[in-house]
Specification:
Length: 138
């Protein structure tokens, strides 16, 4: 169990690092919005299974536990059921710049929300550990 906790903290840390790097790349895109010939960049999405493979220590298999027969077994949706159909294209201005400010700002806002979620998960996990250890909160 202790190893699973360490892996969770490693995953949260890796996710926070990725989000910080993405925010920097998107900010650079916005800053270069008037630079002729500049093409917007983005980071490859973080892959949860890849993060698990690269976490320190031996591989850990995380599985949900069905604690009651009343809990649903769930079902697997067909692959690609929620696939994004939007092609990664962009408009190019006469100067050759491909930065679309509304799109970049939308990505920055989504990254900020993901960062808040990650930070909230970290706080909740630390709070649960403190409660389990009998350490007063706050």
């Amino acid at each position: 169990m202790l190893q699973a906790r360490a892996v969770l903290f490693d995953l949260i840390s890796a996710r926070s690092g990725w989000l910080g790097q993405r925010q920097a790349v998107l900010g650079q895109n916005v800053a270069q919005a008037d630079t002729p010939g500049y093409r917007p960049r983005d980071l490859k999405p973080a892959d949860f299974s890849g993060l698990l493979r690269h976490a320190d220590g031996p591989p850990v298999r995380l599985e949900p536990v069905r604690t009651s027969p009343a809990h649903g077994a769930g079902r697997t949706l067909p692959r690609g059921a929620f696939a994004d159909e939007k092609a990664p294209s962009y408009e190019v201005t006469p100067s050759g710049n491909g930065v679309e400010l509304p799109e970049q700002l939308e990505k920055m806002a989504a990254t900020e929300l993901d960062h808040r979620l990650t930070t909230g998960l970290y706080r909740s996990w630390v709070g649960m550990l403190r409660t389990a250890l009998g350490v007063p909160q706050g």
